[in-house]
């Protein structure tokens, strides 16, 4: 890493890791994860969910007109996010009415931030379909995901490296990510992946079965657990 890139990474780190407000994770609904443990969850105001749609670095990767929207706040170096990406891909294949929105949330260190810079460029340059291919390619191998792995994945979907590097270096990235962090904090996202569906935030990943049941309930009665 060059000195200039290191300074840029440190600056991004400072900007991104602003103090977060504390919030109690009461379980509003008695939802159990696939492993039998309770999942912290809470309702979020509709106007705050609407603000996610205004973020500049989200990608709708499944059915833009779907009846149920699921937002995933994720970090590329979160092992649970890696697992969730496979489950969500399967879920969108089985449920064509699910609208999946990916929300980058790089909070696990400098490698995550550097990879998110590349991801930021890919989101600007590629179609949602190609972005989703990139997303899965990045998760394809084990180990730390940094900018080099992200650049390799971008190249694999046919993006020109010079242009990717140019956009990835834009100063706007820090401003955009600060807004992601701010909204995530207001939503009570204290762990990744953070799932928002049916006006409810799941803090942590409940597993494929529990998440499928929640999505099906939202489609049926408008909330994650029908009466």
Q: How would you characterize this protein structure?
A:
This protein has 227 residues and is α+β, with helices and mostly antiparallel strands. It has a single domain (36-86, 93-216), classed as Glutaredoxin, CATH 3.40.30. The chain is built from 9 helices and 6 strands; from the N terminus they run αβαββαβαααααββα. A 6-stranded mixed sheet has the order 1-6-5-3-4-2, with helices on both faces. Helix 4 packs parallel to helix 6 and helix 5 packs across helix 6. The longest helix is centred in the middle third of the chain and has 16 residues, at 79-94. Residues 1-11 and 14-24 have low confidence and may be disordered.
Spatial order of strands in the largest sheet: 1-6-5-3-4-2
CATH architecture descriptor name: 3-Layer(aba) Sandwich
How does the major sheet shape up?
A: 6 strands, mixed
Distance separating the two termini: 55 Å
Low-confidence stretches: 1-11, 14-24
Indicate the structural class: alpha+beta
Taking all residues together, what is the mean pLDDT? 88
Task: Report the principal-axis shape.
Answer: globular
Radius of gyration using CA atoms only: 17 Å
Oligomer: single chain
CATH superfamily: Glutaredoxin
- Indicate the proportion of strand residues: 5-15%
- CATH level 1 name: Alpha Beta
Enumerate how many helices there are, as a single number.
9
């Amino acid at each position: 890493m060059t000195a200039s890139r290191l300074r840029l990474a440190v600056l991004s780190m400072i900007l991104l890791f602003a103090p977060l407000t504390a919030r109690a994770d009461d379980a509003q609904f008695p939802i159990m994860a696939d492993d039998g443990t309770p999942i912290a969850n809470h309702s979020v105001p509709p106007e705050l969910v609407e603000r996610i749609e205004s973020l500049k670095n989200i990608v709708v990767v499944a059915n833009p007109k779907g009846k149920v929207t699921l937002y995933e706040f994720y970090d590329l170096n979160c092992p649970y996010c890696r697992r969730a990406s496979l489950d969500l891909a399967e879920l969108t294949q089985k449920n064509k009415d699910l609208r999946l929105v990916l929300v980058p949330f790089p909070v696990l260190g400098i490698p995550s931030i550097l990879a998110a810079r590349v991801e930021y460029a890919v989101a600007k340059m590629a179609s949602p379909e190609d972005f989703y291919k990139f997303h899965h390619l990045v998760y394809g191998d084990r180990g730390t995901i940094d900018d080099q792995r992200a650049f390799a994945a971008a190249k694999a979907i046919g993006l020109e490296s010079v242009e990717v590097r140019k956009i990835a270096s834009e100063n706007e990235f820090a401003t955009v990510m600060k807004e992601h962090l701010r909204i995530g904090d207001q939503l009570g996202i204290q762990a990744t992946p953070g799932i928002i569906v049916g006006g409810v935030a799941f803090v942590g990943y409940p597993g494929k079965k529990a998440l499928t049941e929640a999505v099906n309930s939202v489609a049926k009665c408008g909330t994650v657990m029908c009466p």
